[in-house]
Write a structure and sequence with these properties.
The N and C termini lie far apart (64 Å). By secondary structure, the protein is mainly alpha-helical. The chain has one domain. Helix 2 crosses helix 6, helix 4 packs antiparallel against helix 5 and helix 9 runs antiparallel to helix 10. It is 72% helix and 0% strand.
Length: 209
């Protein structure tokens, strides 16, 4: 059949229930739109909270899931702005081509870590600072992610189930990378790194954490 034939058949099937089907389509569109907007708004604060949780685990501090909502208490606006700007900038760079978008996502990698560390840091300043700190280190982070490629394919073989269990491992590796880079630039102090995680000195790492 031609395109015209498909259109004619579609209208024939549609016209008796047009308004009901339109209402259904609108409801789904509105619900999905609200969900996407909520995800966009909450991304910055939630990622900052997740970073706090993982850093606390890495430093062998007491863990509490409530850490996920800590940024909502005293740095919500800054975390919100940082998350929104990060998403928008990555999207705009991706419009040029996918590679620039990926590169920029690495440039902005430290944004939520900086927000988690400094509750008074403005969102746009966190992005600028992340870009500066990641200059010359994006490749290191890329190869860190690339080192998990074997695990990634294993996750695919398990129909994605394996990826769920792999996520904390990848996230903690990112935390180690972030803390190392922040220490190099004197953003955080008094942190001892060791090849053996059990040898990590139990010191208060970040006062706000």
């Amino acid at each position: 059949m031609r395109a015209k034939d498909f259109r004619n058949k579609a209208w024939e099937a549609l016209r008796d229930n047009y308004w009901l089907l339109l209402a259904g389509s609108l409801i789904v569109s509105v619900v999905l739109g609200i969900a996407n907007l909520a995800a966009l708004i909450l991304a910055g604060p939630l990622i900052a909270g997740l970073n706090i949780l993982y850093v606390n685990a890495r430093n062998k501090q007491e863990l509490r899931l409530e850490a996920l909502i800590d940024p909502f208490k005293d740095r919500f606006t800054n975390a919100l702005v940082a998350g929104l700007l990060k998403q928008v900038f990555i999207m705009l760079w991706s419009l040029l081509f996918i590679i620039p978008g990926i590169v920029k996502s690495y440039s902005y990698f430290l944004t939520e870590y900086l927000i988690a560390y400094d509750k008074d840091l403005k969102g746009e300043d966190a992005i600028k600072k992340s870009m500066t700190l990641m200059n010359g280190h994006k490749g290191r982070l890329f190869f860190l992610h690339l080192s998990f490629i074997g695990w990634f394919f294993l996750g695919i073989l398990t129909f994605g189930i394996g990826m769920l269990f792999l996520t904390p491992y990848i996230k903690m590796a990112e935390v180690e990378f972030a803390l190392d880079l922040l220490k190099q630039n004197n953003i955080i102090e008094n942190i001892e790194f060791s090849d053996d995680i059990d040898m990590v000195e139990e010191i208060e790492i970040i006062t706000d954490f």
